[in-house]
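ARCHIVE CARD
Drawer: 12
Card no.: 0347
Subject: one protein chain, sequence and derived structure
Cross-reference: see card 0346
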Amino acid sequence: QLQASGGGLVQPGGSLRLSCEASGMTYTRYNTAWYRQAPGKQRDLVASFTYEGDTNYEDSVKGRFTISRDNAKNTVFLQMHSMTPEDTAVYYCDAYTFDGRDWRHYWGQGTLVTVSS
């Protein structure tokens, strides 16, 4: 089970850090990712962090967002800087693994981020 938190209202140019704590599972055995879904749009990948420690970012957030993982706290973070109104969305954390046949995804409940003055 994944519990996302940290969303809220932030002004343009501001920063926010999202957290996603896992229970009943260990992140070191999973790849993890953050997705976001803006109103009326599909859910898109923002950043990913493989169990081996490799990271990947969507082009529009490169240099502004950082995904990281604290194994001791079993928590994944998304640090966001220089935020713009286009970052407004519900953010979801995802832990996924290949079970030999298909990818299995475990989703957090989503946390709303609003960037507005």
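Annotation on reverse: The mean pLDDT is 94. The first strand starts at residue 2 and ends at 5.
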